[in-house]
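Lab notes, practical 5.
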Amino acid sequence: MLTYVARRLIQGFVVLLAVSFICFIIFRYTGDPVVTLAGRYATFQEREEVRRAYGLDKPFYVQYVRFVINAARGRFGKSYVSRVPALGLILERLPATVELATSAIVISFCLGVGLGVLVSLKPYAARNRLIMAGSLFGISIPTFLTGILLIMIFAVYLGALPSFGRGETVNIGYWRTGFLTLSGISHLILPAFTLGMYQLAVLLRLTRAGMREILGEEYIKTAWSKGLPPRKVIFKHGLRNALIPVVTMTGLQFGELIAFSIVTETIFQWPGMGNLLLTSIYEMAALIILTINIVVDILYAFLNPKIRYD
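Output from the prediction step:
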């Protein structure tokens, strides 16, 4: 088990270095940040001073090594656009995005797996056919349209939920959370459902397909013939074996929800990291997705002890 985890962590570290190097090269040769820092009308001498001050006069490999060392120490330098420390800018908006993505993935996982199991037991029942049709709509409708429809129904017509903002928040150390206030929770409901609707539909269909396949296996028929309680057969013997692809998809989706929630955050004016991701922190997105994938791979060993690296 320890060998499996250690190898997975080493692989993740190598991949992260490769991604950071590729991103560094791309951004290094897609425009000169000195023009942004010094201004369009700066003289040649002023631009050279800025270049020396930020170390941009060094060879690219020296700049990259310096970047990696500073990043390992938690020093990400200043944003070229806002002229403030980049790490502080990220940490200021990180709680809002993490809470939004966490709420969305919890909703989509619980409802998706629960409805997937329900549908798999009686796939031809009218109720379950209706659920599958609804999942098709969830996959087909774009996120921005889902958000607009939810705002129109629950905020405009019913007036039951707020349509924008994060609501009242509470500071817990450096973390600013909205989970501890009714205002924060009510502001979170619509954007969380909007962000998680597509993932909910995917997990529902994936769980249904996995359960349908596993419920036809011989060991499930044996469990039924032994007279085991339905709950034990379905959830212990059936669902546990069907969860591996579901957990894989959930991990991938969670990383994507955190890293690319720009559409939902824009619709609901949610003060998260979406706008920052569009402009400057693609490497942070890679770090988030890679970390979650490593955690998912480690979970494989707990769900199925037979999974090991050779």
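Observations recorded by the TA: The chain has a mean pLDDT of 80. Residues 107 and 196 are 7 Å apart (CA to CA).
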